[in-house]
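Entry type: protein chain
Record version: 2
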Amino acid sequence: MTVNNDILFINRDEDYRERMTSRLRDCGYTVHTATEMRAALSALSENAVGLIVCDKELEDIGGYDFLSFIKKDPLRENIPMMFLVPLNNQGRPFKAFELGAVDYLVYPLNFEALIGRIEEVIGPASEKTTSESSDSASPAVEASAHETSQTDTLSALNAEVSRDGIIWMPSPVKGFTSDSIAVQTSLFGKKGVSLMIRFKRPEGIFVVNGRINDISFLDFQKPADIDIAVEKNDNWRLVYRFLTHPGDAKACPPPAEEAMTADKTPDAVEFEATIALTDDGEESCDISGEELQRKAARKRQSYDVRFYNSIIGKQLDNYRAISLIAAGSMGGVLQGWDVALEREVALKIISFELSSKEEFREMFIKEARVVSKLNHPNIAQIYNIGSSNDILYYAMEYIDGLTLKEIIQKYRKLKFPKGLTLLITVCKAMELVYQNSIVHRDIKPANIMITGKGVTKIVDFGVAHTKGFGRSNGTQKLMGTPLYMSPEQIAGLTLDHRSDMYSLGATFYHAFSGGAPLNAKEVSKVMNLHLNATVPPLCERDANIPSEFSKIIEKMMAKDPNHRYQSFKEIANEITQLRSRLK
């Protein structure tokens, strides 16, 4: 995020341009306007612009061509550019993101929504850093009021920057966050270049490694402002403590992320994201729970999410996209409106990252075809599949409710009687999946939903396969969620419905106990536990769970598929009988 509040607003519609620039100025932003390329370049040369908001067409050049020109200009390539295009001339957001746009919006658009997007990129107009009282503002710094009030502390911090550790350039500190620091330096470099920052303190010299996150030339006769993403080692923690608590460095807390994870126990590290595992090293199993969470956080801020947001307000055939519900491994889900039948729908959009890969496009289409065969009240229904402006999507039943994961997070665990009813319902729906020779491969709390009316729905067949799927070569991907994957799924063996049965057992073990049956701090260790470790009986985790039910879960999670139940109907019948006996 940058702290430069200047916006270059490019739009040929005079009424709309004047109306929007007036409102942006009321919010505290400095706004420059243009309708053609020459005026836009002049504004960029004369002003320190922090964001370009551009229409799809200028008077003399296309918006995409203008973006391409900006990204090839080394002096302006780091200025973020956002498209704001009219509903009747929407264009192709895919191309915009491929060229480097940070966002793609369609108007008419709620002004508060536009401001929210702008604040994501350059911050609110009221956001200031300690550098704004100097000749140049620091780039990409999210400084809190506590941080920005420490002008004296920053001026007292002697910092130097080097590429090779031999030549060090004095670099005044202009701002900081828990994971970055902004300096003013004559040492130039492109985004991603590695740098070392050396801090000289009475206690000693501290060297912190980092990479250039953003660079800004506000006056080309003066040093550049560079934002550096730092490596969070002990040296950085000590420097950060001095910055935040200069009078009490020993007693101050670690950076925000360190404090958040410091008290985590192994049981608190849960691998609930669907991942792809392959033998060719594409996705390493030696990854910590914290790193998986960071990857998920980065994913939420990736081009995928910006792409999904860019679709809001667009119409895909008969469906109008209204709002983003969630972003997953294969795609995003948006709330939509069927303009022909006048009903709410959910629109699943293939991931921007995966859309260019034929393998995943085929998988996405196959998911729609698989689910369309499953006509059951407890399985989300597919209405239509289509492609509009190169956006591959399918429309499905809109489910207004909570996932089992969200219920667990809210209440910690399920009440036993209601949990039994829920499990019976899911088993009956999974029996239909089994009868259609389909293996879901990603049964987990996040993929079981309960509507506001109490109706259960199984969702997300994004990695489903037909019965008998197995590894055909050394690079075949195995997809699933580590906390709930069956041993044969981890081993890459042929899968059938009993793999889903294991995952369902692990899911409800979690739901009834409040914790995953097997957990560790690394993906490889979690999977090794599923392959070799004995699952503690559920009744030992919670003494209120009857031992008879604990044995049912234990049988569902048997290591050998032949030792599990052979159908979901069998599980549902046994739980129904148990429930009758317990009444």
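Comment: The longest helix spans residues 416-435.
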